[in-house]
Amino acid sequence: MSDTASTVQTAPKVETKSDKKSEYRLEMSGVVKTFPGVRALDGAQLKLRPGTVHALMGENGAGKSTLMKCMFGIYKMDEGEIFYEGEKVDIQNPMDALNRGIAMVHQELQPIPARSIGENIYLGRYPLKKLGLISTIDHAKMYENTKALLEKVHMNFNPRQKVGTLSTSQMQLVEIAKAVSADCKVLILDEPTSSLTANEVDALFRIVEELKAQGVSIVYISHKMDEILRISDEVTIMRDGKYIGTWESKDLTTDSIITKMVGRELTNLYPPRSNTLGEVVLEVKDFTSIHPRSFRNCSFNLRKGEILGVGGLVGAQRTELMEGIFGLRAHTSGTVTYKGQEIKITRPQDAIRKSIALLTEDRRATGILGVLSVADNISVASLDKYVDAGIVLNDKKIENLVQENKEKMAIKTPSSKTAIRSLSGGNQQKVLIARWLANDPDVLILDEPTRGIDVGAKYEIYCIIADLAKQGKSIIMISSEMGELIGMSDRIMVMCDGRVTGFVDGKEATQENIMAYATQFE
Amino acid sequence: METTKSKFSAKSIKSFLGNNAIIILLVIISIGVGIARPAFFSWDNFVNLMKNTSIRYIIALGISGCLITTGNDLSAGRTVGFAACIAAILLQRGDYASRFYPNLPELPLFVVLLIVVAVCAVIGLANGLVVSYLKVQPFIATLGMQTIVYGICLVYTGAVPIGGLRSDFTNLATGGLFGGQFSYIFLFAIVVCAFMWFLYNKTRHGKYMYAIGGNEVAAEVAGVNVPKTKIKIYMLASSLFAVAGFLMAAKSGGASVNTAQGYELDAIAACTIGGVSTTGGIGKVSGIFVGVLVFELLKIAMQFMGIETSYTYIVQGLVIIVAVAMDIRKYLAKK
What we know:
The structure holds 2 protein chains of 2 kinds. Chain A has 3 domains: about 25-260, P-loop containing nucleotide triphosphate hydrolases (Rossmann fold, 3-Layer(aba) Sandwich), CATH 3.40.50.300; about 270-355 and about 440-520, Rossmann fold (3-Layer(aba) Sandwich), CATH 3.40.50.300; about 375-440, no CATH class. Chain A is about 35% helix and about 25% strand. Chain A is built from 19 helices and 24 strands. In chain A, the strands form 6 sheets. In chain A, strands 6-9-10-3-11-12 form a 6-stranded mixed β-sheet, with helices on both faces. In chain A, helix 8 (about 200-215) links the parallel strand 9 and strand 10. The radius of gyration of chain A is 26 Å and the shape is globular. Chain B is mostly helical. Chain B has a domain at about 55-270 and about 275-285. Chain B is globular. Chain B starts with a helix and ends with a helix. At the A-B interface, helix 12 and strand 20 of A face helix 10 and helix 11 of B.
């Protein structure tokens, strides 16, 4: 079917052009984008009608943001084409996209806090005036224009106010004002409501409705089902970089969306599990962050020999919760009970002393000591064990530790003196796991333990994890890969928007029931 | 097979030259100057060079810990000067006319050394606390401390130069073991060097220091007590500046508020020439020695060649830039 479609498209281009003009403002089809080792987009497509809100949905890593970055000129497509207002276009870069009337409000806002609203909006395209021979910035005109733009989004702010003094939602509105200032015809909103309160969402939706009435096509990326069903006219669903389909919103329900989003084939192999669960080792009650939008009232327990998977969408605050328990982030209330005793953890050392270990999510930023050797990296958390006479480090003991782990975990490194940054991701990860195991912890928190690791090394790491559980260690594994969660966990805790929304037994876990909990927004 | 082998050896020669460029430069300079001015190879000149190098080495070792943890200590020079002033004041001759403390009893040398170290350690403690807990960037924190220490030194000495030092004190510089051939200053430098090598390579403190320099957040996650380690580093640095100041007073037979002014910059330059990475986590006690030696050798070589002092600054500056540029190339190539 798709084959015939593409052959038809290539031949009579001129005719299809005029056809499309009547129906679609922008049309992306057959988009392929690969990154080293990953096929992020594989035949993705999106068709936008003028004056509509088009929701783009999919799980973590489905390729939504990648597709939008292709549309906005941040990434270059490997294959595929874009028709914009009936013409085939090649969008070179974001500036090109903006000039054509395509604007994007990013998920992660990137304002310059110390500069004014006006300067942020007109950054890089300041209105100029001639002052003799030299051009200078026309501040009066810039602030005048800004005021008019802010009124469009119902913001009555002084355009000279510093962006840093605004709330997140107000910054978002500034970003939308900026998009509108480019006289956009297509506006991409990437998870615009993830940090907004209910009232702010209502305000945003009013603006979206107004823009829609002006004929703007809006691409709306969100995980919040009720919002999607409320604001959008059409929904396109993606999975694993592929186009699944486009439906009219009125024909969809939360359940039908979830069913279409998941349903990925789980092909990865997982080692058999033969662990037996013991008594409760760790109990967390009402754990709440100091930040109102982060983790709150989280309670769970962990048993000896258990692998507790932690699922949820990006932004569910899973990492934050675990880093809070480990003492890397502050909490206001809640208790952690370890082997029947309440413990106070305010910094990582406290957690380590209680035999808790944390393998962080971002290996490069918070895991490896890049320029240091494999030996230094393995031993850094357990140096107290290799000291002679109270002060001298015994290099032989450290070397033994390295050799032992090198063998046990099949770490591929030329020598123990090799700088860790020259190893592959999988081997770096094994070194980091070895670092923690040297401390003989009872509880291991593994945050995305297989992220950025190739398939073979992934399986090895699964085996290590399964083996640790068998030895009676308790494991908390945060993962954004459904297959991994279902394949490895005895039990899965699902989080959404800072709260624990449910537990699923490992044997009964399906992509559907996990996703249902993961999208339980308040 | 044959070709790959020869290619490999050519490559390894190239990398050897690249990695040891500074030492090779050192040898070339020495030989060149030695041929032009034979007195350059005299024993006296060697002793003089080593005395200068020894004191500078102690300062550079102090500052190296700060640099390895991506910090800095700009108060180094002023702390050395302050220490020199205190040591000189406490070790004036009893019969000297303008004694600072006319009634001060004759204190043993090691007691004065301990006093000087203790006073300077407090300066380091303040630096460490400000860096660790107030989270002020080390560059700024120690820049402030530089001015504070200078002010304290001015207030304390009244800006009067201090002379009339006891002969047993100046003997530290003029005398030595083996009939005075092996200066006591070398002995100090060797002891400090051995201590620092041990500390950097054989203790937890050293490993934690490199870990913080390698990746501060990761070190914290791994349970390293980052504030405590940093405070120790800054205190140790200041203590070594105290030792250097003590020796400088002995060597120059006096001290003033301007003693050792700007020495921190020479020390930082020597460290970077010696392979201490400005991005942290890398730096060896042996490399720092080479760095200091290059610097001092260069100065003396230019003196011997009769180059005007004003020009030597230009050359020194160029050497710093070239040395660091070459050093960085090693890491750039690995990317």
